[in-house]
Amino acid sequence: MSIDLPPIAEADRDTYNWFPTNLVRMMLRTKSVAKPYLQLGITFRDTYIDARTRESVIVRVGGLAGSAYELMQHRDIAVSVGIPEQTVTRLSDPTIGSFGDDRLDALTAFVDASVGSIGKTGEAPLKRLRQHYTDNEVAEIAMLIGHYVMTAIFLNAMEVPLDDGPGVWPTT
In whole angstroms, what is the distance from residue 137 CA to residue 15 CA? Predict the structure, then answer.
């Protein structure tokens, strides 16, 4: 039994228009979460990690969480930042753990361990990840994983319907 998307109240119109998607519309059912959520999300565009790493993490989390919505929103972005379509498809498949690239393999192993154990990855995945990423990048990767796991839980629990296509983040 899904929860209906709410009508957009005039007081919420600016928040909704910032990223007009069903995700944001459903978040408008909360008292004050939507705007800070969007503000946090946009910060992941200005990080130590590169766009390919960011999108690899998001696609992997979407695949692990069974979030068709996250995959729909990020598939084209992942390709646009240089991740081959075949790799995007493989990243979204939680049964695939080897990509023939030690950096990507370390990243996905860390994502898998983080999602599977709520961040208690153990020493091996973290040690392996740190061979390829700085401590600042590892911190951002961990925050990004958490953000998109939270998003997937919300999307799945609320059964947010897919949009007609990916939303477009504002440039500012």
Answer: 29
Q: Which long-range contacts link 93-102 to residues 24+ away (Cβ below 8 Å)? A: 93/63, 94/63, 94/64, 102/132
In 3D space, the residue among 52, 42, 60 whose CA is nearest the CA of residue 77 turns out to be: 52
Is residue 157 within 8 Å of residue 67, measured between CB atoms? no
Cα-Cα end-to-end distance for the chain = 37
- Can you give the pLDDT at residue 172? 57
Please give the pLDDT value at position 119: 66
- Could you tell me the sign of the dihedral formed by the alpha carbons of 142, 56, 33, 153, in that order? negative
Query: Based on the number of CB atoms within 10 Å of its own CB, is 15 exposed (0-12), middle (13-18) or buried (19 or more)?
Result: buried
Token representation of residue 39: 């503000």
Mean pLDDT by 10 residues, the chain (172 residues): 91 95 97 95 95 98 97 97 98 96 97 87 90 98 97 96 88 62
Calpha distance 171→131 (Å, rounded): 33
Burial 141-161 (b: 16+ CB within 10 A, else e): bbebbebbbebbebbeebebe
pTM: 0.94
Residue whose pair of structure tokens reads 């319907």 in the numeric block? 161
Q: CA torsion, points 4, 69, 150, 81, in degrees to nearest 10? A: -150
